[in-house]
Amino acid sequence: MEHYEAEIKKEFQLERIIFFSDAVFAIAITLLVIDLRIPYEEGFTNVDLLQAVVNKIPELIGFFISFFFIGACWVKHHKLFSFVKTFDTRLIWLNMFLLLSIVLLPFTTGIFGMYGNLTAAFCIYILNAVFAGVMDYLCWKHILNPKKKLAISNLDDHFKKTVFISSLLMPGWFFICGIMALIFNSYIGEMLMPVVTVLYIVVKRKNNIKAVKHR
User: Fold this and answer.
1) CA 155 to CA 83: how far, in whole Å?
2) I need a labelling partner for 188 at 20 to 30 A (CA). Which of 8, 35, 113, 179 fits?
3) Cα separation of 62 and 189, whole Å?
4) Cα-Cα-Cα-Cα dihedral sign, residues 174, 29, 108, 142
5) Burial of 194 per CB tally in 10 Å (0-12, 13-18, 19+)
């Protein structure tokens, strides 16, 4: 009976971690839009309004990039915890640092949106994104460590390899984008960022083919 109550308590505590994380993701993704305001001015004409919207395009680009970035991070976080059966203090802190990287995104997105033509602004944003990717990888690595016994038991080596490659792909590519921005300019780095989506699809397709061959 005591063992059963302990399991229920552990499951409830795990749900608290997940609910707290979901709330942080939701707040962070909402904060992105707060700065996207066009101040009211007396005597604004249609042309003035359209020009004000056009002037907001750099900030809108930053908003959309971060919106889908946070969304992708939440999907990966949701998948990560679907394999967790229990937790330890280390996992809690790794998750906290992952959430820290997410909470910082509205701030770095604002810098990127307003000063996207500056290499420093782009690199600050990239560092934030790389931080998030690295923390995601460290969470996966800790959870899938067989010695910790945190994950469900029916995960094969191919699955673990696929997860590790996928987790490192984004921060690795964004780091390259940052290097290219430093060598050339921020626009080169910005144009290279969407390539990570193509790389992710290619890697995922190759891993699916290998998975079929393993069966």
Assistant:
1) 9
2) 35
3) 13
4) negative
5) exposed
Between these two residues, 4 and 92, which has the higher pLDDT value?
92
Domain ranges, residue 72:
2-214
Backbone dihedral angles phi then psi of residue 193, each to the nearest 5 degrees:
-55, -45
Cβ of 54: how many Cβ atoms within 10 Å? 10
Are the CB atoms for 62 and 116 separated by under 8 Å?
yes
Q: What's the half-sphere exposure (Cβ side, CA atoms, 13 Å) at 90?
A: 10
Helices (H), 83-118: 89-103, 105-114
Does residue 10 or residue 93 have the better pLDDT? 93
Asked whether the whole model's pTM tops 0.85, one would answer yes
Number of domains in the chain: 1
User: Which pLDDT tens digit goes with each residue over 204-213?
Assistant: 776 655 544 4
- 19-67 pLDDT, tens digit per residue, is 999 999 999 999 999 888 888 888 889 999 999 999 999 899 899 999 9
How high is the pLDDT of residue 6?
Answer: 55
Return d(Cα 80, Cα 61) in angstroms, integer: 28
User: Cα–Cα distance between 142 and 96 in angstroms, integer?
Assistant: 14
How big is the CA angle at 116 (ends 110 and 122), to the nearest 5 degrees? 85
DSSP state of 151: B
Q: Inform me whether the pLDDT recorded for 132 exceeds 60.
A: yes
For residues 102 and 20, is the Cβ–Cβ distance under 8 A?
no
